[in-house]
């Protein structure tokens, strides 16, 4: 690799605390990206990698086909890349990807965001039972995910920047909110997520045909 991005990068963004509006002085720069491997490389026995680490610390990129497959499954981590307000690199193929981002959204987000949040809630609770300690950062992100999932279902847009919730979320992160209150808050948000799912105008399934057309166009443009 040369330069700050993997070869073929079409979209590179900052995610994590800096994109969420939750960063402090020592926060990492979590970088995520999408690259398009040369089309002819797929004709070989050894296929291009589906993802790459680096070249910078905390940097991870997906090949566009793998990225699209995960986004169609409503993977929260992947969807955030398409709505991050902090874009570091963007090509014409990247613009085409962003222009099609609504096609990835469906009612599946209720299940994926809810599952991620419930899993984190169980992990924190299990640690409390086994060690007596609380992973406050994990608890904070569980609440953030529930807010974000409800927002997607109600607005059709992925919520990344949660600056209006910064103080409340950081209070959880620093252990200033009793665990019982965090659990109660999570229960309320899970109920809100269910209500949003029932009322959402998002389609039952994502628009695979539109994403297939996008991927085909990118492959054609990269047939050199």
SS class: alpha+beta
The coarse silhouette is globular
Arithmetic mean of pLDDT: 94
Q: Can you tell me the residue ranges where pLDDT is under 50 for at least 5 consecutive residues?
A: none
Q: How many H/I helices?
A: 9
Strand line-up of the largest beta sheet:
3-4-2-1-5
Order of helices and strands: EHEEEHHEHHHHHH
> What is the number of beta strands?
5
Calculate Rg over CA atoms.
Answer: 19 Å
Q: Helical amount among residues, as a percent range?
A: 40-55%
Strand content: 5-15%
User: How many strands, what sense, and barrel or not for the largest sheet?
Assistant: 5 strands, mixed
Protein traits:
224 residues, alpha+beta, globular
Care to describe what's here?
The protein is built from 9 helices and 5 strands, in the order βαβββααβαααααα. It has helices spanning 16-20, 64-72, 76-83, 92-99, 108-131, 136-155, 166-173, 179-199, 208-221, and strands spanning 9-15, 30-35, 51-53, 59-63, 86-90. The protein is α+β, with helices and mostly antiparallel strands and 224 residues long.
What does the secondary structure layout of this molecule look like, with pairings?
Layout: E1 9-15, H1 16-20, E2 30-35, E3 51-53, E4 59-63, H2 64-72, H3 76-83, E5 86-90, H4 92-99, H5 108-131, H6 136-155, H7 166-173, H8 179-199, H9 208-221
Parallel strand pairs: 2-4
Antiparallel strand pairs: 1-2, 1-5, 3-4
Helix pairs in contact: 5-6, 6-7, 6-8
């Amino acid at each position: 690799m040369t330069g700050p991005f993997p070869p073929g990068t079409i979209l590179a963004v900052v995610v994590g605390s800096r994109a969420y509006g939750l960063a402090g002085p020592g926060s990492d720069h979590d970088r995520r990206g999408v690259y398009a491997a040369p089309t002819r490389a797929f004709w070989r026995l050894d296929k291009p990698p589906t993802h790459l680490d680096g070249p910078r610390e905390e940097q991870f990129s997906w090949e566009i086909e793998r990225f699209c497959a995960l986004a169609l499954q409503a993977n929260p981590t992947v969807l955030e890349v398409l709505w991050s307000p902090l874009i570091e690199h963007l090509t014409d193929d990247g613009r085409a990807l962003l222009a099609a981002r609504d096609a990835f959204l469906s009612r599946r987000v209720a299940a994926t965001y809810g599952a991620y949040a419930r899993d984190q809630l169980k992990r924190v609770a299990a640690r409390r039972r086994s060690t007596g300690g609380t992973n406050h950062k994990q608890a904070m992100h569980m609440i953030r995910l529930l807010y974000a999932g409800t927002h997607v279902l109600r607005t059709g847009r992925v919520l990344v920047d949660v600056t209006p919730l910064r103080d409340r979320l950081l209070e959880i992160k620093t252990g200033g909110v009793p665990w019982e209150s965090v659990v109660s808050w999570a229960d309320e948000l899970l109920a809100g997520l269910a209500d949003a799912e029932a009322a959402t105008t998002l389609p039952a399934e994502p628009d695979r045909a539109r994403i297939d057309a996008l991927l085909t166009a990118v492959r054609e443009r990269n047939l050199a």
